[in-house]
Amino acid sequence: MRLENSAMPKIPIWVFIILAIVHISAVRVGVMDIDASQYAEISREMLENGNYLQLFDRGIDYLDKPPFLFWISALGMKIFGVGNLGFKLPSILFALFAIYATYRLARLLYGEATGRMAALVFGTCQGMFLMTNDIRTDTVLMSWVIIAIWLIKEWDVHRKLHHLLLGSAAIAFGMMSKGPIALMVPIFAFASDWVLKREWSKFFHRQYLLGLLVIAILLIPMSIGLYQQFDAQPGKTVNGLTGVSGLRFYYWSQSFGRITGESPWNNGAKLDFLFVNMLWSFLPWILLFVPALVINIVKLVKQKFRLQPGQEWMTTGGFLLAYLALGSSKYQLPHYIFVAFPFAAIMVAALLKDFFEGKYPQLHKVFKPIQWAVSFLLMAVTLLIIAYIFPAGAGWIIAWIIVLAVLLFVAFKKSIQPKLFWLSVTAIMGANLFLTNHFYYTLLDYQLGNQMAAYIKQENIPAKDIVHYRMKDPLNAFHFYAQAVISKDSLEIGKEKYVLTQDSGLIALSRKGYVFDTVTTGKCFRTSELTPAFLNPATRGESLQDYYLLYIK
Q1: β-pairing, 487-488 with 466-469?
Q2: Of 3, 121, 5, 8, nearest to 417 (Cα)?
Q3: Nearest-10 crossing angle of helices 273-281, 126-133
Q4: H/E stretch holding 317
Q5: CA-CA distance, 361 to 351, in Å (whole number)?
Q6: 186, 141 in Cβ contact below 8 A?
Q7: Exposure of 218 in the CB half-sphere (CA atoms within 13 A)
Q8: Rounded CA gap, 372 and 355, in Å?
Q9: What is the pLDDT of residues 68-79, one digit of tens each?
Q10: The whole model's pTM is what?
Q11: CB-based contact 328:259 (threshold 8 Å)
């Protein structure tokens, strides 16, 4: 552990407690369509059928994601019941574990104060708040990967075998969360560091065989489930194909196949796609991350690609190689890069440490006003949300005034140093207090599945008596909150059935001569596809779609 001077900010534990409370408060927010609600429904079905090795989505074979997220979500629902708390809390706890592991790794590399600062940077980036609201497999993947890197680094420093074995177990659980990327990212991090230090012997430790054995053993149950569900049944049709190998899909096609072109998934994303999305997902730290990355690369080039004593390249190398691997995929989504965010956070913390120790004074001078502007802009956007987009009551306005007062106190209180850091922390935590507990919470009122599930429970309409017909909006949340698979009827609808449909379905049923009563009607919006028209209250009504619950006579 490195020594640090008194210029580093002292981050008390209560700051992390407040951060944890803001993240955990996301359990109030309903599950969001499309992915999170689908994962919630798969987990609910797993709990209901008791089959933990084979995955089903509305009774249909599911081959897309590994089982770990569904295991912990099913466990959460077994303990807390089917609902937001049971599904979301396990993933949120893993996000908090990732913050802790980032602290421990950064502490090993740079010392206690920088470790705390890296953890706070990571825990307050916008992507983290998004992940605890909109649950993804990447949350758990990110957690296991940084836990694995921290533990293996502990072994690298202290040579205690249990650290290596636990780190290997973390890699296995990461692979059970989202595939081989959980193995590749630690390799990227350590290999780049060891190569640049010319520590060739570290590539050939016999203990690695024990680590690989741990990984292999832990992957056996998942592999058995994949084989039984797919490889042992070559005649089964999966996603329109027969002869599908679950093992090949998981260990090769889903990850490496997207790079080679073997996978059919292709959304045309280019190499810069992930970075462009980092411009919002790594706020408010992205404008500090870019110079941190550039400085590290330039420094390495000047040193002729050889690290000096006390330097590390795990974070920069791990980030760059992970980015290149993920950015080479022909199908990318913004959250794919989140697995590398702990590296980015440590790099930012290391740059801030240099700033506070008097290094790069001109660069520090440039970024001070930029971070001030970003901080106050975040509060301005928050005010726009609670005053105009989704008008809130007086209580929320008072809360915003309190947060703004705290921000101003931090800005002008001379004894609070360094302001560059604390302004950013205060602004992003304050903004997400409102985003989570007002914006996202209100947004879910427009999600069809939540509305319909609440209605049929209120009116005691059995879910088994409902079919859906020609629906444009996703219904994953409806299945989950209704705690039943709402069947699809595309041909003949039996009499005395409730039918959930939208405009095209209503017209088709009328043309076919069905006689029905309209039980209820309402308006909805695809909450995962926000548009300016929806966010503007003056035009929101035009962007909403009608839905109808009909009773066929």
Answers
A1: parallel
A2: 8
A3: 90
A4: helix 314-327
A5: 12
A6: no
A7: 21
A8: 16
A9: 999 999 999 999
A10: 0.94
A11: yes
